[in-house]
Amino acid sequence: MALPSSSFPHHTQNHIEILDIDEDELDTSNLTAHVVGEDAKARLLPDQHPRTRQNDDADTLLRDLGRLAPSVTKDFIPKRVAKKKLTLRLINDTEFAGEEDTFVALSYCWNKVNHDIPRKEVSPVGGLPFGWVKTVEQFPLPTSAAMFEAVLREKGEKEGLWFDQVCVNQEDENEKSLTVAAIDLIYSNARVVVAALDDIAVEEDELDFLTQYIDQYDTFDFQSDQQPNRGLHPPFMQQEPTFWSLLDRILGSVWFERAWCAHELRMARNHVFLVPCHSDDDETYTFIKFSGSFFLHMLLLASELVNLQAPARNKLTSLIEHFGTLTTQRHRSDSPNPSPRSISTSPSSRIREPPAFVPLISQIFSLKAGGNPLLPEYLRRLDANRDKACITLNASGLPIALKPTSRFQRPNIEDECLRQLLLVGLAMRDPLSLCTTGPVLRLHDGSVSWLSKPTELNGPPNSEFQVRAPDFHVEDLEGLVCSSDGRAEYIQLPLLFLELPHRSTPSTHFATHIHRARTFIDLSIQFQLQAQRQSTWHRQQDLHVWSYTHNASHPRAASLKNVFVQTLSCIFELGPHWLLDTIQSTQGAYTSLTPQAVDVLYNPHLIIQNYLLRPDGQACVSSLLALLATIISRGITWSSGTSERTHGPLIVSVPHTSPVLLPQQLVSPTQYLSPSSASQGSASSPLYPPQLSPYLHPNSQIRSTASPQAFPQTQTQTQMQISTRSPAREGRAIIFAPYAHTKTLLIAIPRALTKATYTELPRAWILTPMHQYTGTAPGSASPAAKQVVCWRLQGKGVLAGDAGFVEGVGRGGRSSGEESGGGGRSHRIYGPEG
């Protein structure tokens, strides 16, 4: 409900102020926390959070979760129940009568507060005449006295104040849980959220600079696209380093690292920041107060600095995106004559889609949470984990919340909380819940789960965490069951197994491809060629893996160089059609790799050293290196502890016949290629494991030929030409597989992830049989047991394939029964051993 402008202070007109506050001015004796009535609560807390999807309600989600993992469903309740049972208290003057029109919410760090709970003090008997007794409510201050006085000044005449330490009964676990479940309603409906950054202090020179700077901005009404001092050369904050030191100090506050504070920041519509200043005066305290708009102004100026480290730049980017959206929306809503077309078509005017669930889990669990400070250390850590799980559900917009804790629940260790959330993600059909690549979850009973921790690397490479991957269909949940056999948890689901061509027909050109690839890589390092970022399709971190090979003293230079050689040899084996088809799928990221340039790269008469002396040759090879770096960087799941030392490239193909081979047919020792089949040249390299030699598809023939005139060749060179006989859409891909399981691994894709929309996700599961020759346990004689094949999940990876591979996988995923299930058998996937 909008208030008249006279009902609260005109804070929006002053983007930044210097406040001088006498601590003795604070008087809390006239403040009290009162319970808001149901009608007022409904008016103050309308549901502003967007729904996750049109048909996504609590009953549907809990029903799907119950079918998938019945043991997890009992831990959740519909969020509407929490809102209905929520007790809303607001702090106001004891003399205030009536109902508040709105309220101010305080965001602060619990580690700086007095952890006492509110209490009432009763005057001693005889202390007052006529036997009177005076009762005064005393509650602890969440900040310093001067800071709290600054907070109270933000409250208007008909406004209340909310902060959890006083407005939530800290001794009632049920009330605390219900408040946590509905915390987004409180902070998103507050007129303003005041952030108290009381763990830092502004230095005197920074205060002097701001005092002079205020005059320029005191009455300036700026938008995100109208920022004074932006676009200067050199950047304004480089000219005024004091300004940058101030912002750097603010961003260094622990407030930005706390999970609850970060969530409160994201939920708020309007922000006011309070920062104390260093002062020698024991009576008067100075504070800087600035709005979210001025904070955005500082962030935008800082973003122009070129020497920022990656963590600082990532934090700036995230905050700029959030505050920029809020500022744009606020200016549009304040416009006296907004254009109907702009309101309906502008992205920032529409309801924002909720964040992608699995990356949100990773982001929140990377932040800090202190838990209930009144609990012992171990229980406090468990409480902090539960807080992060609650924040994740709250921020996601899902219509469910965690129930209050009970003695019958699993302990809230971090991996148990992650297990809960990932199973919720699977029930809501989030494909990323099947694509997490972090360390495996270790549960409270010591068992290893088939689930892995989500990481910041999960998700499409070009998406921020706000972008959602397309959900898989409801029918894809059919056949998915998460259960336990009493020893460990497993998931049972239909799979599409890929073929490993090297096991049926080993490549006869392994040595040729390795020699040619090594020559390319050695000369590229010698010429100091860089992997050039040619479009936004590349992430800058993708290209770093190549830069490490230039420093011979780098501890990973040799191993990274080796994986580049291996990957390039696979590309030579796959042929020019595969390379061109892959390039076409990258949205023009490799402009130098034209069809003519690819023909040159595959021409065996090419004198590589001479080619690299030409500008067009360097541009072509630089693009090739960027492609290699991208395939390697995205293909190796670095977050799970793997590296180029543990994984190497493997060529896989779409099954040409259905049904998929049974596990005992796929895992036959007679099909393995012995290391002796590799050439002597390849075996002499200590960096290339001999067992990886069969990782190449036999689709090429080598023949002698005359040297083309365009590329004269010396007589000492071997005259070979690679002839690829397969069509452009033959359906093959590269995946990085572990060396340790070379002889037993299989590659499979869950049927729910076979659609082309999931191409960039780590959807390929690397499996090994639980028992030799068959997946069933020894002694499992029952017919039902013989229809179940058990596997261990050794990792996941991204498949870098051509269009034929993507289409073939999609066709295989649409098949049913024996075609996709492996001969009609059910597949149970367990976590790795130990």
TrEMBL record:
Composition skew (Low complexity), residue ranges: 340-349, 706-724
Domain Heterokaryon incompatibility: from-to ranges: 103-264
Region (Disordered): 327-351, 706-727, 810-834
InterPro entries reported in the protein's UniProt record: HET (IPR010730), HetReg/Transcr_Mod (IPR052895)
One Pfam family per UniProt: HET
Lineage top rank: taxon: Eukaryota
Residue ranges with Gly residues bias: 810-824
Cross-referenced PANTHER family: ANKYRIN REPEAT DOMAIN-CONTAINING PROTEIN 39 HOMOLOG-RELATED, HETEROKARYON INCOMPATIBILITY DOMAIN-CONTAINING PROTEIN
Protein name: Heterokaryon incompatibility domain-containing protein
